[in-house]
């Protein structure tokens, strides 16, 4: 099921806006809806969300026309299927570096409920899949979006082949992991890092793949990447936006009131997701 | 039990800083701790928190030295006792207008576990309470903070008598309810509203009562009230800070990218709490 | 906020359809949406729902355009306000027998956030409420539906006066309580019981009040009452529909397979709600 | 419904054994079942249990033949009804001191679903209740146990009249509240306290009322009170038994290993419940 | 531990009745108990149940003598062990096609807590397992039921060898997956599909293996398969029975009241499980 | 982050005390804090804890200076990372028998967020890891404790090589699994079992590895093992301590009161964990 044309937007490279939601709270969805989001990013890799919470989140946001995009903990077909069963429209597999990984993700999302020996056969020989079954599976899985997390040097080096895998819809760049993998941990202003990101964005778009980068600090980064061609604007998270605003407001109030005692600042939250 | 000297600060009129927390999330407390808060405001009047969630919140923040202040749903001795059992250090009763209401709150918080007929007797004739019992009850309830929500014209008119009730520790001004009660709904810049707030602050402080005002918009309001004498800085809430920051960041990004489609803005959140 | 025109339908006596939902499950709302419901009835009087669950239910159904109608545990202004804060569009107070009870419910739902001394004054002297405040409160509470549970002989005897209370929008008849109050426990086919129900329906509609009856057995009862004029079709509950269908299917299968061992049948569920 | 003959045992003064359960954990019930308990005491006055947790606890223990006895937060008919709806077999109202309070509890538990004006009439004039309705209500509420918490000097002074209220089944003595009310806080060995407890036990039993005392320290107290006539053995709680055993085992291990650093000891837990 | 003789019934091919439960609700178990069920099917492959919910469900149904049968997400020894730790009596592994998969399931369920290198050795050379250990493990794991989901053409083709694996107790046929694998998606009336099911039933029973088919539409399918020899009657689910009954009742009421506006119908739910 | 010097104590072989916590309850942490614990053992292998519960537990105990040590369900890098994301300070992988397993655990805990191809390269050729990255990863993962569960004969036979793996910090002995693997199920007094435990303790300590054994019966076992050199005192669990104390107290009370009916006793709980 395509929520509010999200799949269509991804396939046509239309600009879409979202944030990472880490909190399962009954008031959150209506509130995010007011900010005019196209999707929410739900990260089961790093955020300790339960399966039932994930299902509440997916169903709650879908009901409002906001597409739920779920990152699974590791590239695994069973996890991809569980995310869809919980209501995800898109699934992100983290740290993909090899073509087989992307192919597995695509098959897990777009050939459900086929599995096992037969799925392997169809994957090796797609032409052997009967047309009637092909039609059924396309309808059954319509709207599902397959997204690869590109966040390492090996993935960067192998990028053209990765993007060529049939069925891949979009790429999420993981800035923290990528910076560490490049030996430039958290140096998001380093020219090599900036070059790498720009390269991924360009290559994705020229291959007809939607692309975005999830980042939890300055919104102007999203502007810059958007100007470079990123059409998925994945800006920050509830936890980062709240804690950054709280810290800066409190600092301002204390300083205006002449109270200089506390100088706490939240960590860079980008490290979390 | 006094968390991090909070009771002492309230009694001495020391500046304390807090925010309203509406989310029961395992990562929240450590994050707020970094912002250097003295207390959190947990509102069971308007926010649908379960009793077990309230207990997690109270114990979680206490463990970090942040005093949990709980607003009960209505002025009721049983609810006040349940808040303390859940781990609250302070209890706020909403919409207090009469001296008996404040007196009841004080007795519910500072004479536990006395109840019923005998408590009524001691309340009428405090001198009949045996010294040994007085000592026991003082130790048993040490650190408990009694806070009155002042948020209506009748309360305003009766303020001197309300502040004179023995045992009252602090006042929270409720701006939304007060503005409606004054016939100036949400007109927080109206001179009459500003005058009323300034009056409450002044009267509280001159009576040795700590005072603050919970407000969810501009931090500069807290600065102004702090300069007028409010020593409890109760700035905004997680839900307001997050949604305001998300909306403004998204607006900025969209506008910089030339995307003018969405103009959504979160409601004034002050209406909620 | 009016969900999908529900308030308008209630005020115009349009037919609306709903069921009682007792289960807080992420998959339920989308499923009920397919059955084309206008509202769900959420009963916090008898069903042990937590406040956070109630908020999930209210927000989840609202997002799909299904109005959440919440029965509070007893006629109490604080509970009515908490239901609205949790996301309820309509509030049912149980076992109402007196005009003041209905008036209190109306004021609790339609004059928020006014409370206390001033609300009492405006309730006694509605003409003293300033026009600007009236307008604000009407907008602030727009869409809220006040529903009285009529389920006893004293209420029946006092019905005309109860229905005359300004602001009452609808009546829910409670068949189990009413039958017990009439000394005809669970005798839903007794002519006196049928006459009483028909009388309430007729009187409500002739006073411009929407009316329905929540009943958990045969759907043909709803047809009959609908033909008598009930425009709120409040048919059964998830727990009743499931258990009735399970029991009848299992009985059928066992009997067809020649297995006569088990003859269990679910209790009349009407007793529960 | 009578769970495992619990109601019969209470009415005949048979010895019954139980503990206070504060934890809603899937493994607890089967474990307690092995200890051969007749009932569990679930305290919603002091323990922050949610309504859904209470329902899990009640249904879970009932399924194993262990009667769930629920203490409500305060003497209130709505709370008593909610406890029964959640699955409680017995309901304890705290701090009862007056005959009307006991009578209200009895009517709330044994005349459901009657309420309001008519219930008041039947309560004033029991002879006006029709026989057929009497029979229905007796069957509908069969097995429900009404228990009064006696825990203050005024209750002690009024005890004969309290025990004479028709329909009262049992008494729970609250040692902490009683000791405070007597001006002997936590002095459980004081001869006056011991005399008071012995007096309540004797008076209950001679009036055909079952009686017990919930206490969280030495099991030999239960032995002593059992020998004095208490037939309800309400020994300690999960939280007290665990923390006491952990503290004593840890102290033993540390001391045997020559590690004398830590001397922590859990508080008297009796204060909690 | 054998719940209510369930293991014995499976080993002797006795008729057993069950349904799929997707809802963790305190009132469900007692309600299902009235329908006379032998087991419940809890599906962690497709239904987003948390581990703690699974444990509540397993313990709750066991307490009532209803055996909990858990489908794990994928054939994996760790998941099988976790299901047993959560209280499952039987474990179903989905989409089994190879003998090693069935053998692994059997060893995971019947040789606990052996694992690792030694378990591999005993699995290769069962005769090397010491008799005393054999006896201990048999007692330790007594009652555990190993169930294979047969739901693909490769499994069908390999069926005789699969059924010959020592320790396999029962087979669940997965109709949706099987129909897709056969290239006949959801064509449950297709003669080839019917033939395949009948073949599996016959082959299982002639090999002393209990067999059933989980299906969520007409109960007469279960009758037909029961007559063909299926002794496990796994009829529908709570979610399917409720939504089907709600949709048909609402359609009936609307049509009788002349309201033809809504024609919604729930999807085939068989697709879900 | 090092909680209360726990990592330092583990590296220096200092005595540390802990228990296994199976219950996610808001009151537990403060209570355990009073018993002076250094760590809690949270077992996600056998105890059905949800991810969100695990995060509450980890953050709650950390806030009090008690280090949370989490056993993952099976040796798996993704699970190890999720435990750390949930707030674990130490991670125990169960049933380790091979050097690669220990090495994987170490890399999963101490080289985060590196993964995939590059991590494999650095693992094979540690000298190729740039110094700046090494420094970053050391700081990023500082305080993380890698613990191997040794609980089988193959592990015993391979122990010297296992302990030599660089980065391993501590060993937990699993008595139940070990006894079964040795063909001596639950024979904890068997001389061969005692010899094996003593051998592991000695070998660990002489290799600079901290060691403990989680056991749920007599505290004197911990004394004996402590005297043999075990510096991690992992004594019992909340569920075992509670049920043992409840059973013995109830037995005592019954016997003193001459009630000989019930002789239930909890199972050996050591089997559970």
From TrEMBL, chains A, B, C, D, E, F:
Q: Which UniProt keywords apply?
A: Lyase, Metal-binding
Acyltransferase listed as a keyword? no
Q: Which GO terms describe its cellular component?
A: cytoplasm
- Organism in which the protein naturally occurs: Parapedobacter indicus
All copies of domain HpcH/HpaI aldolase/citrate lyase, residue ranges:
31-242
> Which protein are we looking at?
4-hydroxy-2-oxoheptanedioate aldolase
Q: What family does this chain come from, according to its entry? A: Belongs to the HpcH/HpaI aldolase family.
Give the GO molecular function terms: aldehyde-lyase activity; metal ion binding
Q: Which SUPFAM superfamilies match?
A: Phosphoenolpyruvate/pyruvate domain
Alphabetical list of InterPro entries matching this protein: Aldolase/citrate-lyase_domain, HpcH-HpaI_aldolase, Pyrv/PenolPyrv_kinase-like_dom, Pyrv_kinase-like_dom_sf
């Amino acid at each position: 099921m395509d929520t509010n044309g999200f799949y269509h937007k991804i396939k046509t490279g239309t600009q879409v806006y979202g944030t990472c939601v880490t909190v399962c709270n009954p008031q959150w969805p209506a509130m995010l809806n007011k900010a005019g989001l196209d999707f929410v990013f739900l990260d089961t890799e790093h955020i300790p969300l339960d399966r039932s919470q994930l299902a509440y989140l997916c169903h709650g946001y879908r009901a409002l026309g906001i597409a739920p995009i779920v990152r699974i903990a590791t590239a695994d077909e069973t996890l991809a299927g569980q995310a869809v069963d919980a209501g995800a429209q898109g699934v992100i597999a983290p740290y993909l570096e090899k073509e087989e990984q992307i192919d597995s993700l695509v098959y897990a999302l777009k050939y459900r409920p086929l599995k096992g020996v037969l799925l392997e056969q169809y994957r090796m020989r797609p032409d052997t899949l009967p047309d009637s079954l092909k039609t059924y599976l396309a309808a059954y899985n319509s709207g599902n979006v397959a997204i690869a997390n590109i966040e390492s040097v090996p993935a960067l080096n192998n990028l053209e082949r990765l993007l060529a895998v049939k069925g891949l819809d979009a790429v999420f760049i993981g800035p923290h992991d990528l910076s560490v993998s490049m030996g430039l941990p958290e140096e998001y202003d380093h020219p090599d890092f900036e070059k790498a990101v720009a390269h991924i964005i360009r290559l994705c778009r020229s291959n007809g793949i939607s692309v975005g980068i999830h980042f939890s600090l300055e919104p102007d980064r999203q502007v810059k990447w958007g100007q470079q061609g990123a059409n998925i604007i994945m800006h920050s998270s509830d936890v980062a936006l709240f804690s950054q605003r709280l810290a800066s407001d409190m600092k301002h109030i204390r300083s205006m009131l002449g109270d200089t005692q506390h100088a706490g600042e939240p960590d860079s939250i980008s490290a979390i997701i």
